[in-house]
Amino acid sequence: MPKVIADGQRDTVIELVNNLNMVTSALCIYVNGAPVDPMQPPGPANPPTWMVVDFTLVMTARQPVVWTVSQGRVPDPTNPTDPGVVPPVQQPFTGELKCVETDVTGAPLGGNALTAEATIIDPDGDVGKYDGITIPGISVNSDPVLHLDDVEYGACPAELRFTHPADGEPDLVLQGDPVSNFLTLVPCTQNLDLGSPGQVLVMADVSDEFEQRLSGTFQVDCWRESTLTALSPAFMSLGSTVKYSRLVPRGKCEGGTSPGTFCKVNSDCPGGGECRFPGLLGVLETVHPATAGAAASAIRNLHTFGSMPGATMTLPSLP
Question: What's the whole-model pTM score?
Answer without folding.
Answer: 0.92
